[in-house]
């Protein structure tokens, strides 16, 4: 029950408190305990301050909980905010929420995770199929000899994550890599659970040659991830076991630098937050906006991790 109680806690910040904002735009993450979304929040706040007439409100479920996300959105519809940017935790649930917001005259865009069949006006974020392909290609480049691999995913109802899984499989199709039964696992964006699932998979399949988390969740528990990697360090160093992980937060870059992973493929959540504010403001002004805005990827290995950390 704790997560339902905590989900009511708001983090609402005015970009420029000295005057009344013309517009109140809300950015709704899948989970506020996921540090990935902190960067989207920071980008939102920065851009709102630069624009000068916007209040950036950041609020979502504390933990990954689609029903709570839907309730939070309904609350903002009742408050008649001026725009919503949503990272969609569950497509079916959010499609209904987006329809309700739109019916109330509130423009809705998505970021990070899309609901393309909904009434959202635009999507800002990663091309998730290409993201998955990039993860798979990085593994194939590092280990063309192949072997058994597994993936760790987040929530089973998230379309963006399903696209990443498809992309990894597409990149490895026809290669010497084979996916093990039970892959992907679903950690529901819980870092500790993601680490435990990696441990369980390696225990169940001792000759598992690679794990590809399609989100950064296990590294968001850096000490737990480090403990897992340390137990497998001999195989990582010898090339028998490979870790290619999504996202490039600072803690992840440090783990890669220190030899606890082989490669990272990163998104750009700060830009997602910035562009969400620009897009919602343009919509309110009656301007035409692109339906899709991709923010790009970053490929990081030991060769360029020091540069990324600067």
UniProtKB/TrEMBL annotation:
<dbReference type="GO" id="GO:0030246">
    <property type="term" value="F:carbohydrate binding"/>
</dbReference>
<keyword id="KW-0732">Signal</keyword>
<dbReference type="InterPro" id="IPR025997">
    <property type="entry name" value="SBP_2_dom"/>
</dbReference>
<protein>
    <submittedName>
        <fullName>Sugar ABC transporter substrate-binding protein</fullName>
    </submittedName>
</protein>
<dbReference type="GO" id="GO:0030288">
    <property type="term" value="C:outer membrane-bounded periplasmic space"/>
</dbReference>
<comment type="similarity">
    <text>Belongs to the bacterial solute-binding protein 2 family.</text>
</comment>
<feature type="signal peptide">
    <location>
        <begin position="1"/>
        <end position="20"/>
    </location>
</feature>
<dbReference type="Pfam" id="PF13407">
    <property type="entry name" value="Peripla_BP_4"/>
</dbReference>
<dbReference type="InterPro" id="IPR050555">
    <property type="entry name" value="Bact_Solute-Bind_Prot2"/>
</dbReference>
<feature type="domain" description="Periplasmic binding protein">
    <location>
        <begin position="25"/>
        <end position="288"/>
    </location>
</feature>
<dbReference type="InterPro" id="IPR028082">
    <property type="entry name" value="Peripla_BP_I"/>
</dbReference>
């Amino acid at each position: 029950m704790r997560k339902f109680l905590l989900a009511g806690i708001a983090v609402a910040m005015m970009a420029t408190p000295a005057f009344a904002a013309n517009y109140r735009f809300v950015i709704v993450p899948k989970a506020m305990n996921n540090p990935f979304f902190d960067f989207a929040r920071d980008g939102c706040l920065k851009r709102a301050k630069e624009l000068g007439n916007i209040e950036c409100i950041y609020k979502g479920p504390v933990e990954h909980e689609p029903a709570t996300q839907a309730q939070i959105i309904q609350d903002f519809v009742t408050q008649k905010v001026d725009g919503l940017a949503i990272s969609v935790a569950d497509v079916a649930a959010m499609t209904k929420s987006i329809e309700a917001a739109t019916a109330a005259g509130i423009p809705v865009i998505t970021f990070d995770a899309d609901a393309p069949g909904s009434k959202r006006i635009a999507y800002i974020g990663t091309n998730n199929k290409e993201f998955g392909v990039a993860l798979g290609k990085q593994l194939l480049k590092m280990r063309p000899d192949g072997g058994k691999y597994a993936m760790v995913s987040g929530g089973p109802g998230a379309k963006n994550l399903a696209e990443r899984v498809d992309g990894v499989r597409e990149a490895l199709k026809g290669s010497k890599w084979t996916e093990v039964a039970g892959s992907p696992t679903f950690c529901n964006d819980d870092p500790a659970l993601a680490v435990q699932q990696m441990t369980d998979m390696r225990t169940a399949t001792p000759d598992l040659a690679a794990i590809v988390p399609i989100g950064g969740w296990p590294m968001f528990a850096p000490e737990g991830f480090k403990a897992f990697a340390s137990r497998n360090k001999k195989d990582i160093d010898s090339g028998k076991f490979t870790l290619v992980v999504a996202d490039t937060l600072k803690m992840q870059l440090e783990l890669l630098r220190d030899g606890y992973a082989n490669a990272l493929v990163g998104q750009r959540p700060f830009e997602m937050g910035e562009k969400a504010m620009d897009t919602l403001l343009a919509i309110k002004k009656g301007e035409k906006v692109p339906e899709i805005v991709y923010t790009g990827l970053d490929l990081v290995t030991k060769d360029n991790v020091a540069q990324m950390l600067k």
